[in-house]
Amino acid sequence: MPPEDNGQTLGEMVFRLAQSMVKLDPGQLARLRRMDPSGPGEGDFWRLAVQHDLRTDNKGLLLVRLMALLTPKGEPGANKKLHQRDRPLGAVLFEAGYPETRLLNFLALPVAKRGESLERMARWLAAKGHDGVNCVDIARLLFADDVRDARRLAESYYRAHDGAQTKPDSKEDEAA
User: Can you tell me whether residue 167 is helix, strand or coil?
Assistant: First the structure.
């Protein structure tokens, strides 16, 4: 069921889901990371789905898998940062060194083909480490057929890129 159908916004659902996921033990997260989104789903998924009124289609299972991939490893609740509303996906990708060509290839994909690329992005971020990411951005890119979400991704990536380019060089500051 889409979150909006039960009175819960996508942002609220993702926030609550992220809070639950950082409390899962490493074994539960590992099962969710390995879960086949086109399969029947793991027991851990179904507990989360019932608790948070998640979508139970392939995209709903994939969202949980993506968020499990992004959940930092370690003991449950050990100051793990998963969903950070003020850290747009594009900016986090730029900070992690995600190649611009991959971003542009993603932006050119139709919505129906985004899932696999979002998983590659999540694996990239997990491997590089991150201080949380706006998981609502991921959910919107996965669920919505709206160009605004792709534009938001590009804008936040290029704003971070521009910010990195325009930061004054500390050596120049010392010479001044």
Answer: coil
**pLDDT bracket for residue 154 (50, 70, 90):** very high
Structure tokens at 25: 């033990």
d(CA 136, CA 85): 8
Phi, psi of 24 (to 5 degrees): -75, 150
Where exactly are the structural domains of the chain? 3-166
The position carrying tokens 């804008």 is 155
Alpha helices in 35-146 (DSSP H): 43-52, 58-70, 89-95, 100-107, 114-128, 135-143
CA distance linking residue 115 with residue 71, whole number of Å: 18
Indicate whether this model's pTM tops 0.85. yes
For 164, 175, 176, the CA distances from 171, given in Å and listed in that order, are 15, 6, 9
Number of C-beta neighbours around residue 65 at 10 A: 23
Task: Residues 3-166: name the CATH superfamily.
Answer: CRISPR-associated protein Cse2 (1.10.520.40)
